[in-house]
Write a structure and sequence with these properties.
single chain, alpha+beta, Molybdopterin biosynthesis moea protein, domain 2, Molybdopterin biosynthesis moeA protein, domain 3, six-stranded mixed sheet, 32 strands, binds adenosine monophosphate, binds magnesium ion
Length: 476
């Protein structure tokens, strides 16, 4: 069962009240409250009105219900408390652009890798027993019986008392059971080779099937294909594999001040940063991104764009217009087309965030500030995309020493990009990494470009003193 204390931020009385009704009992452990929820129960919460603050990750989504989990901690999530985000995807076969795709089904080896015994060094293939007892002063003298050419099978079996020259990766002749490195031989140039160091059977050989043998599991179902996995598949002669379909994510930017990257902004105008950034993030997270362009702050234009994206995509992201101002229409439009599940998150940056549903599809209203949009996407959208893509999101963390004090007391969890560097104050056996907070207004995307990761100051903590050890989530 999930640790209850972690849920206080999510499900304390006030929040549940603000969230609205709790519709179903399935997932989380609740501390207290609610008309439909009792202490210690697990629940799936559904907010049916605008909420002020929900601090959690959206990890599942079905039938307009969201499963909220505390930020940063995905432990304790088991099959019992995960909502299946979609029907089990049908696998498709791909033979190109394997990178980043999610493998559907285990891949088993159909052959030996390597397919023959190979030398691991440049040297001479020998019968180990012919070298026993030799040394610098009393070399074993063997007759040179030729050379194994790269890419060719060794021509003949190795007779006792002989050796053959072999390069790294070359085929080992029958009868040879070790390779002596060039450094340990002397070529007498008269057809005889002196071995100065005894070899044991198996020395410097990679045997047939050492990497994989037929029937071995080479890759596991759900793997996000990395360059190394492509290497393994290539070694096995697999150029086509089954992968899961990618979720399709529609990206919309809204704001009268926005112009596209290719335009020169006039005074009062800015270039659209979020569309290209979000399209790239979606590709990085394993989704197929669709660009619905820049939409003016017009209810009718926004309605058409969101309705279109909502119909054609699995998830829709709209950045901008997500606050509560009169020019901010995103919430109104999502509410009219579907339903608002929550509006507002107790985090900084990122407060004006909306999660809604059109039909059974999630629609996020992201803050316009690019850094805020980035954090909300990383923290909330990414876990959902990972689930829709059929993989498990793994975040990597390191501990580091904070090199500057940070204050924070606004009742919201604060996310701060940090730059990591070697910390010379440690001793060689106890080195530290130091984390320098990058302070910036949330509009400046350059603060992310120079960061290696981010830290979080929880909402009820008033800051972190210099030299405190912090947990840094690395950008991946
Ligand atoms: P909004 O959420 O619409 O109030 O926007 C908040 C801030 O983010 C404003 O300064 C906007 O100009 C800016 N902003 C909104 N959308 C984008 C975008 N796509 N690219 C860059 N900045 C944006
Ligand atoms: Mg705006």
């Amino acid at each position: 069962m999930i640790d209850l204390t972690k849920y206080n931020a999510v499900l304390e009385k006030n929040y549940i009240r603000k969230l609205g009704r709790v519709s179903q009992v399935v997932g989380l452990t609740v501390e207290s409250i609610g008309p439909d929820v009792n202490i210690g129960q697990t629940c799936l919460i559904k907010a049916n009105k605008y909420s002020d603050a929900v601090l959690s990750e959206v990890v599942g989504f079905k039938n307009n219900n969201i499963l909220l989990m505390p930020l940063g901690d995905m432990s304790g999530i088991g099959p019992g408390n995960i909502i299946e985000a979609q029907e089990k995807p049908i696998s498709i076969r791909v033979s190109e652009r394997l990178l980043g795709r999610v493998l559907d089904g285990d891949v088993f080896a159909g052959e030996f890798v390597p397919g023959f015994d190979r030398s691991m060094v440049d040297g001479y293939a020998v019968r180990a027993s012919d070298t026993f007892g030799c040394s610098d002063s009393i070399p074993a003298v063997l007759t040179l019986a030729g050379e194994v050419l790269m890419g060719q099978a060794a021509r003949a079996a190795l007779a006792p008392g002989t050796c053959v020259a072999v390069s790294t990766g070359g085929d080992l002749p029958e009868g040879a059971d070790a390779v002596v490195m060039l450094e340990h031989i002397e070529d007498y140039k008269d057809g005889l080779i002196g071995i100065m160091s005894p070899a044991a059977p198996g020395n410097n050989i990679i045997f047939k099937g050492d990497d994989v043998s037929p029937g071995d599991k080479a890759l596991t179902d759900g793997t996000v294909i990395s360059p190394y996995d492509i290497g393994i598949l290539s070694a096995l002669g697999r150029s086509t594999i089954n992968v899961r379909p990618r979720p399709v994510v529609g990206v919309i930017s809204t704001g009268d001040e926005l112009v596209s990257t290719t335009e020169i902004p006039g005074r009062g105008q800015i270039r659209d940063v979020n569309t290209p950034m979000l399209l790239a993030l979606m590709e990085q997270f394993g989704a197929e991104a669709k660009n619905y362009g820049i939409v003016r702050d017009s209810e009718s234009e926004l309605t058409s764009a969101i309705a279109l994206a909502g119909a054609l995509c699995d998830v829709t992201l709209i950045s901008g217009g997500s606050s509560a101002g009169t020019r901010d229409m995103t919430a109104r439009v999502i509410g009219a087309l579907g339903e608002i599940l929550f509006h507002g998150i107790a985090m900084k940056p990122g407060k004006p965030t909306i999660l809604g549903a059109i039909g059974s599809k999630p629609v996020f209203g992201l803050p316009g500030h690019p850094v805020a949009a980035w954090f909300v996407t990383e923290l909330f959208v990414r876990p959902l995309i990972a689930r829709l893509a059929g993989n498990v999101l793994k975040r990597r963390i390191v501990t580091a020493r904070l090199s500057e004090a940070i204050s924070s007391n606004h009742g919201r969890a604060e996310y701060i990009p940090v730059e990591l560097s070697a910390d010379n104050s440690g001793t060689p056996d106890r080195e530290y990494i130091s984390a320098l907070p990058i302070k910036s207004k949330s509009g400046l995307i350059s603060s992310l470009a120079s960061a290696d990761g981010y830290i979080c100051i929880p909402r009820d903590v008033e800051g972190i003193a210099r030299n405190m050890i912090v947990t840094v989530t690395l950008f991946t």
